[in-house]
Design goal:
The structure holds two protein chains of two kinds.
Chain A lengths: L7 H4 L9 H23 L12 H30 L9 H8 L1 H18 L23 H6 L5 H31 L6 H28 L12 H26 L8 H32 L2 H13 L1 H19 L8 H38 L11 H13 L5 H11 L24 H23 L11 H5 L4
Helix pairs in contact in A: 2-3, 2-16, 3-4, 3-5, 3-8, 3-9, 3-13, 3-16, 4-16, 5-7, 7-8, 8-9, 9-10, 9-13, 10-12, 11-12, 12-13, 13-14, 14-15
Chain B lengths: L7 E7 L2 H13 L6 E3 L7 H5 L6 H27 L12 H27 L20 E6 L5 H13 L4 E6 L1
Antiparallel strand pairs in B: 1-3, 1-4, 2-3
Helix pairs in contact in B: 3-4
Classes of the chains: A mainly alpha, B alpha+beta.
Chain lengths: ~475, ~180
């Protein structure tokens, strides 16, 4: 058996991938939708005029999608390095997909750089720790002693290092890994030097990637809820990326197979990817629950704030997250047979992919929406400001006040008044459920911006696939992969 | 087995699993009735060509697991809400998150232990049971194809022997187990 099909890889005619004009057009249209929706979100956020002083809806979407799709690039690199180091062979026929996905890392640097510059320049207000005067004890208005204590880590310079510089380092690893992998195609048969060099590279990258990604996640996502911290958070986010990357791989493989590529990728490979989708979904749930239960049981105020906010005011996001990302893949993919049915697998993979995009949505949005304003309210608590207008308006006007200090009080009142007209803002009671489009659930603008990032991501992945052989014919594990059998 | 406590076995030992696979395929073509195949490690693709059905052990495993879930959750709910309600850490009597770890553990425990017991029962294994082995090297580096020869005329046994030799069997033996 082994000897007869030794040359399958060589004779596969679909060895090179062509990025067709139609696909380019489609991704271009997706990106255009993204740009239009970004502009809409930036200039004309219908959700909330007071919050939109900082264009928060645009910036949260920007962060949300950059983190989600940039993370897919990181996790593909991480997966590849794990596979190389574990002497894994089954994935080899489609390893170029992960190689193409990790090429999104250098692209995502641009987005992280914009966010990092924003912390210095103050043109967005995602992170309260980056706000002006928060760490200044003399600033009675904005000073926050907890954030001042965290300032050695939570500051714009650290943010720049751990988002932009670290992603640059990851990108360098990705480039070298891919360059060697591509050079292997041109090398003579049985040439192992590229594989061995990549093994060393993978061994170097894994600890670097593992530790630095935690700091990356703390700064990028966890510091949104800037008072809050959780030791499980980095794992939890990484698991979310992992499930999304596997789901994306399944969808892309099924699509490419329908176009006649990857005839050698069989049900056996899909079955294993299905197991990954199932297993990592359960792993994600394990981390989700571990994080939740410890905080729930310990009941320490500064830890429960994250869950309290989400359970009380965003129950749709909070419970929906568990249903779509745990219950659905668990029940559907539990049986052996469902992992081998392409239709079922595609359905679950697309729902879970969207589900984890929603998971990132619930990580980013509630924190940005409430945290800053709550802190401002808190810091203004006893300055007699309260008496001038009723409670409901306090935190909003204070928030406005804080950012538009130069403009004076009267103006801020006007803005807050306008906000209340067509809006069901629920500042009256903390128990009220939030139903604000763009914060409590994604609106058209969120979906549109996601499509924009998706288009860009797909464009990068497809051009990455086109720039190398689709099947790595000289990889030492290619034959093992061809005969993969579960 | 009930009428005759002994089985006469004719078996061939192969050096390579590829030879064994080819032998099974040609035995299927000639309509020979294979008693069993023994290999030192799991050989991929063996089950379908031997015509074995997919094991139903995992269905039993699911049922045991579900039983474990219900047991753990049911008992804890009963104990903490009816039998002996105690407040832990200011949490309600019926606190689902607190029940989860034990529910998970008992699910795994029931599924594992249940599947092991079922597997041993089905295979007739367990403490005090001695299973006859055809050749010790089957657990090391030999691949065995065995035929049951009880009540077969000598001519047919000779046919089987020549079949084994013709399919590259390194050795052919008979044994009464």
């Amino acid at each position: 058996m082994a000897s007869s099909s030794h040359t399958v890889a060589k004779t596969t005619d679909q060895i090179n991938f062509t990025f067709t004009g139609g696909q380019k057009l489609l991704f271009g249209v997706l990106m255009l939708i993204g740009v239009i929706c970004s502009a809409l979100a930036f200039f004309n956020d219908p959700a909330d005029e007071a919050i939109n002083l900082h264009h928060s809806r645009f910036w949260t979407n920007f962060l949300h999608n950059s983190a989600f799709f940039g993370g897919l690039g990181f996790i593909s690199l991480f997966l590849l390095c794990c596979k190389i180091l574990a002497y894994s062979g089954w994935h080899t026929t489609f390893k170029r997909i992960w190689e193409a996905m990790m090429m999104f890392l250098p692209v995502s640097i641009v987005f992280f750089a914009i966010l990092a510059i924003g912390n210095f320049a103050g043109f967005h207000h995602i992170y309260h720790w980056a706000a002006e005067g928060v760490t200044d004890p003399n600033n009675k208005e904005a000073y926050d002693s907890i954030l001042a204590g965290k300032a050695p880590f939570l500051n714009p310079l650290m943010y720049l290092i751990f988002t932009v510089v670290i992603v640059l380092v990851w990108s360098a690893f990705a480039f070298i890994l891919r360059a060697r992998s591509k050079a292997e195609d041109k090398a003579k048969d049985g040439e192992l030097s590229f594989f061995k060099k990549n093994k060393v590279l993978a061994a170097i990258f894994l600890p670097i990637g593992g530790f630095s990604s935690a700091a990356f996640i703390w700064l990028l996502l966890m510091s949104i809820d800037s008072h809050w911290y959780s030791t499980m958070y980095a794992w939890y986010v990484t698991a979310s990326w992992l499930v999304s990357a596997v789901a994306f791989t399944i969808l892309l493989l099924v699509y490419l197979k329908s176009k006649g590529y990857f005839p050698q990728v069989t049900k056996e490979h899909m079955h294993d990817l299905g197991k990954y989708l199932f297993g990592f979904s359960v792993f994600w749930t394990y981390l989700w629950f571990s994080q939740f239960m410890l905080i729930w049981y310990a009941n320490v105020g500064e830890e429960t704030v994250y869950f309290d906010l989400r359970i009380e005011e965003y129950p749709f996001l909070f419970y929906g997250n568990l249903v779509i990302n745990f219950a659905l893949p668990f029940i559907v993919l539990l049986a052996n047979s469902t992992k081998r049915m392409t239709g079922t697998l595609v359905l679950v993979a697309s729902l879970v992919f969207f589900g984890h995009w929603m998971d990132f949505f619930q990580m980013v949005k509630p924190g940005v929406y409430y945290e800053n304003y709550k802190h401002l309210k808190h810091s203004h608590g006893h300055d007699g400001h309260h008496d001038e207008h009723h409670d409901t308006d306090t935190h909003l006007s204070d928030a406005h006040n804080h950012d538009a200090q130069a403009e004076g009080d009267d103006h801020s009142h006007a803005a807050v008044g306008g906000d209340h007209k067509g809006d069901n803002h629920d500042g009256h009671s903390k128990k009220a459920k939030s139903s604000r489009v763009g914060y409590a659930f994604p609106g058209f603008i969120e979906i549109g911006m996601m499509l924009g990032w998706l288009g860009l991501f797909l464009f990068v992945v497809f051009s990455g696939l086109a720039r190398a052989q689709l099947v790595p014919t000289n990889d030492p594990y290619i034959n093992e992969s061809m005969h993969h059998h579960v | 087995m009930a009428t005759d406590s002994h089985t006469n076995v004719l078996f061939g030992l192969y050096n390579d699993e590829e030879d064994l696979m080819r032998a099974i395929e040609s035995a299927n073509e000639s309509g020979l009735d294979i008693m069993d195949v023994y290999t030192p490690f799991p050989v991929h693709g063996l089950d379908p060509i031997m015509g074995l059905k997919e094991s139903r052990l995992h269905i039993a495993g699911f049922i045991y697991g579900a039983l474990g879930t219900c047991t753990a959750f049911g008992v804890m709910t009963w104990v903490f809400t009816r039998n002996w309600p105690i407040i832990f850490g200011g949490k309600p009597y019926f606190s689902v998150p607190a029940f989860m770890p034990i529910t998970f553990e008992l699910t795994v425990l029931f599924a594992c232990v249940g599947m092991v017991i079922t597997f041993y029962t089905i295979c007739g294994m367990g403490p005090g049971v001695t299973n006859p082995i055809l050749d010790e090297r089957i657990t090391d580096d030999k691949f065995c194809l065995a035929f049951k020869t009880n009540g077969l005329p000598n001519g047919e046994i000779d046919n089987l022997k020549s079949f084994l030799s013709s399919t590259q069997a390194a050795e052919v033996h008979t044994k009464m187990i």
